[in-house]
Design a protein that fits this description.
The chain is of the alpha/beta class. It is 17% helix and 21% strand. The protein is built from six helices and 14 strands. It has helices spanning 172-179, 256-270, 272-275, 291-305, 322-337, 356-360, and strands spanning 6-12, 45-49, 64-66, 86-90, 94-98, 104-108, 114-118, 149-156, 162-165, 197-204, 207-213, 240-246, 279-284, 311-313. A six-stranded mixed β-sheet has the order 10-11-9-12-13-14, sandwiched between helices. Helix 4 links the parallel strand 13 (279-284) and strand 14. Helix 2 packs parallel to helix 4 (291-305).
């Protein structure tokens, strides 16, 4: 199914039913008086969260959604039936804006959450309600009010705890395949990932988080180069970013330092929200370098960037270092969720040398380089 994260629809709530003008007419009962009933309320339009949906593609073909009109009132004091509400199922994480004013109407974030987007019309009043001691035969009634009609802009923003950013071919899809059950496409050419992917990383009972892989950025993405920054909005709800850098790039590809600076520049150009979000540096493809050279590249990159945050050196293909990475991520997410709990005891950073046998054997013990259990704000 094609991933669609934007759609525009028209919603129309039902009008309220009109009030009725009627008089009681029965044999042997002269001047029975007014008995016109009220109309029914018009149906409203709601968006409801459906965890089984992950795209807005259905709204490309179904653009108009209408609730039922309330029935008119009838004689013998019979009230018209209210119109049925229209429930529109949307994926979790859908943001709703007024298409004409860009006003934020609300967001659907949880399963079965209902968001009112168009209020149904109020019912009309029948002539029986106008009866009084001075107006015993009222011939007036009140029509129902029209329901709301508006155009909506739907934006799907994926719900994930951790987001992956990096240049094309940095290994983001390989990492999400290694640590979760997600199976995004992986190939040895850039822009293999064209749409965001989600994966659930499980470390045990009640120990899991959702990770998002978005298409890679390139220099000038903020101005529309490549896939631009269209998918960066999916990182706005994440609590942590993992910045992947290829430390063994192909000939002619940007050097690790240039890769890191390009991504930082594009995040800053997109907006302050992403630029200031907590970000960890993850050096990938360590299996392609000798352990001593990988360590040298890591130290040089940290010094050149003046990087103060956590740094991990991994191999997404062999899995080396990924266990320590996801464990540290889980620990950090728990700390962010419970900020008033005392932090874990500080441990000194440890450096693990990658041997050539570890780089070629998937079954060896996975360790992390430069694992840090203290957290520092990023510059």
């Amino acid at each position: 199914m094609k991933f669609v994260d934007e759609a525009e629809i028209r919603v129309e709530a039902g009008d309220g039913g009109n009030g009725c003008v009627s008089f009681r007419r029965e044999r042997f009962i002269p001047k029975g008086g007014p008995d016109g009933g009220d109309g029914g309320n018009g149906g409203s339009v709601y968006l409801i969260g459906d965890p089984g949906l992950n795209t807005l593609v259905d709204f490309r073909h179904s653009r108009r959604h209408r609730a039922e009109r309330g029935r008119d009132g009838m004689g013998q004091n019979r009230t018209g039936r209210g119109g049925e509400d229209r429930l529109i199922q949307v994926p979790l994480g859908t943001r709703v804006l007024d298409a004409e004013t860009d006003e934020l109407i609300g967001e659907v974030l949880t399963a079965d959450q209902q968001l009112l987007v168009a209020q149904g019309g109020f019912h009309g009043i029948g002539n029986a309600r106008y009866k009084s001691s001075t107006n015993r035969a009222p011939r007036q009634s009140k029509p129902g009010t029209p329901g709301e009609r508006r155009s909506l802009k739907l934006e799907l923003i994926l719900l994930a705890d951790v987001g992956l950013v990096g240049l094309p071919n940095a290994g983001k899809s390989s990492l999400i395949r290694k640590v979760s059950s997600a199976r995004p496409r992986v190939a040895d050419y850039p822009f293999t990932t064209l749409y965001p992917n989600l994966g659930v990383v499980s470390l045990g009972p009640r120990q899991s988080f959702v990770i998002a892989d978005i298409p890679g950025l390139i220099a000038g993405a903020a101005e529309g180069a490549g896939l631009g920054t269209r998918f960066l909005k999916h990182l706005s709800r994440t609590r942590l970013l993992l910045h992947l850098v290829d430390i063994a790039p192909f000939e002619g590809s940007p050097a690790p330092l240039e890769q890191a600076r390009i991504i930082t520049k594009e995040l800053t150009a997109h907006g302050e929200e992403l630029a200031t979000k907590e970000r960890w540096l993850v050096l990938n493809k360590a299996d392609l370098l000798e352990p001593e050279l990988a360590t040298e590249v890591q130290h040089r990159l940290i010094d050149d960037l003046n990087w103060m945050g956590p740094v991990f050196t991994i191999s997404a293909v062999t899995g080396t270092g990924t266990d320590a990475l996801v464990g540290a991520v889980m620990q950090r997410l728990n700390a962010l969720q419970h900020p008033f709990e005392p932090p874990p005891e500080a441990e000194s950073a440890s450096q693990t040398q990658l041997s050539s046998s570890e780089a070629s054997d998937d079954t060896n013990t996975e360790t992390s380089t430069n694992e840090q259990s203290t957290w520092h704000p990023l510059d």
